[in-house]
Write a structure and sequence with these properties.
single chain; alpha+beta; Aspartate Aminotransferase, domain 1; 3-stranded antiparallel β-sheet
Length: 191
């Protein structure tokens, strides 16, 4: 793979964008996907049925302005949450106006998609506890586990959200396991 660097973003190469999925139409959607995919484990819309899947997130019970302000107040790096209302044409909440946000990545180098997605879910859980719901199984051929837990890879994130842990505390809980993973994977990186 000559002339390739791990630091390059896809639009910094000369390759054309080829949709890896019908719901991954742009590099922007691919950039936010590792975080907003967590919404698949909830009853919130992850923007399927719109022209901006995984960038538009919300639900009919969400007040866009309040939700956007709460997310902005978290001061997450490299991201801006623009309040909006969108109308999915299929999937969750098809034909219903959903208040929510469009996730705009403002700095790809500092943006952390996973904790951003967790923050999106946690903020909705905290603000709309009476309406917010986790998705019921089945999910992806798994019938016995909570779909959010499958996506997160553990039940610890959902437990932390339900317990009221802060976004910072949730992210700090990942530090040691992430360091261990990075050490283990280093010997397998070819480029």
């Amino acid at each position: 793979m000559s002339a390739w660097s791990r630091d390059l973003w896809y639009d910094q190469t000369d390759g054309p964008w080829v949709l890896p999925s019908p719901n991954m139409p742009t590099l922007d959607s691919a950039t936010v996907f590792p975080g907003s995919v967590h919404l698949e484990g909830t009853q919130m819309s992850e923007g399927r049925g719109t022209t901006r899947p995984f960038e538009l997130v919300g639900a009919p019970y969400i007040d866009a302005e309040d939700y956007g302000a709460a997310l902005q107040a978290l001061n997450l790096a490299g991201v801006y949450f623009r309040p909006c209302v969108f109308l999915p044409t299929f999937q969750k909440h098809a034909g219903k106006g959903c208040g929510g946000v469009q996730i705009h990545v403002t700095d790809r180098q500092t943006f952390k998609p996973a904790i951003t997605g967790i923050a999106v879910v946690k903020t909705a859980f905290d603000m709309y506890r009476d309406e917010f719901r986790w998705k019921d199984p089945p999910y992806e051929y798994e019938y016995d586990r909570n779909p959010f837990d499958l996506i997160a890879g553990t039940d610890k994130v959902r437990d932390a959200i339900e317990r009221g842990d802060s976004v910072d505390a949730i992210e700090r809980a990942w530090e040691q396991p992430l360091e261990e993973f990075n050490r283990t994977r280093a010997e397998f990186l070819l480029y």
